[in-house]
């Protein structure tokens, strides 16, 4: 029997223009960065579907795909099948658009699994340059991350558990959007939303973690719109640390180290993509 924890990355199909929502390419880049980490085996499913799994097949499932009405868990009883695994202690995480679900179709599961989600009409999704800080430096996901800046389609004003609370169990990355950002435009709908504008000065979580009563772990991360951000060391390390942590593996003291110098960061991109600066 293998003594390695098993992490499955479920990558959706590209749905935006070049360099955006490059789920498969991003998932494979993350898997590459974790290939030599002791104690963890990473598999990528890039057909956008959750495969049939039993508890012994996987220790964590992380979804990097479109959300909302196109969420991959809407198909083939995905919510029920993953919930069976979660109730057995399997870790679960969601990246970028995959943190958005309809309230009536995935909202209760996301609240229970990872402590919150993006709610259409309540949360917002502007593109802006965020100064990102780590409010919980002692949490394993924060190891070696430090402060960084990145321009992304950052989601905030999320619906955390209990409903209406803006503080997750363990905020890992956060930023304080300016009043200009709060006033829009957002990507869709353009906004602004009065309740978002009224929260001027409030710090917003961008990556958060949950430790469930069943012993499993969960996390959500709102960045990941632009493929180029995987070249940002702090951005990348935070997500790599989260992938390791949610799988039940000890995060290295300095965080997960990775070097993309010898990796083709454009591997698997949308064929219509133009070269990006990575």
Give the SSE order as H and E letters.
Answer: EHEEHEHEEEEEHHEEH
Per CATH, what is the topology?
Rossmann fold
What portion of the residues fall into strands of 2 or more residues? 15-25%
Using only CA atoms, what is the Rg?
17 Å
Strand order of the largest sheet: 2-1-3-4-11-10-9
Architecture per CATH nomenclature, i.e. the level-2 architecture: 3-Layer(aba) Sandwich
Low-confidence stretches: 273-278
Average residue pLDDT: 92
CATH class term: Alpha Beta
Helix fraction? 10-25%
Kindly state the number of beta strands. 11
Enumerate how many helices there are, as a single number: 6
Class of secondary structure makeup: alpha/beta
Number of domains: 1
Biggest pleated-sheet summary: 7 strands, mixed
Name the CATH superfamily assignment.
Class I glutamine amidotransferase (GATase) domain
Instruction: Give the termini distance in whole angstroms.
Output: 39 Å
List the helices and strands and how they pair.
Layout lengths: L4 E7 L11 H11 L6 E6 L14 E5 L13 H9 L4 E5 L7 H12 L1 E2 L9 E6 L15 E6 L5 E2 L9 E6 L3 H4 L11 H4 L6 E8 L5 E5 L11 H14 L32
Parallel strand pairs: 1-2, 1-3, 3-4, 4-11
Antiparallel strand pairs: 5-8, 6-7, 9-10, 10-11
Task: Identify the notable features of this structure and list them briefly.
single chain, 278 residues, alpha/beta, Rossmann fold, seven-stranded mixed sheet, two-stranded antiparallel ribbon, 6 helices, 11 strands
What this model shows, in words?
With 278 residues, the chain is α/β, with parallel strands linked by helices. The chain has a single domain, classed as Rossmann fold, CATH 3.40.50.880. The chain has six helices and eleven strands. It has helices spanning 23-33, 78-86, 103-114, 179-182, 194-197, 233-246; strands spanning 5-11, 40-45, 60-64, 91-95, 116-117, 127-132, 148-153, 159-160, 170-175, 204-211, 217-221. The strands form three sheets. Strands 2-1-3-4-11-10-9 form a seven-stranded mixed beta sheet, sandwiched between helices. Strands 5-8 form a two-stranded antiparallel ribbon. The protein has a two-stranded antiparallel ribbon with strand order 6-7. β10 (204-211) and β11 (217-221) form a beta hairpin. The radius of gyration is 17 Å and the shape is globular. It starts with a strand and ends in a 32-residue tail after the last helix. The model is unreliable at 273-278 (pLDDT under 50).
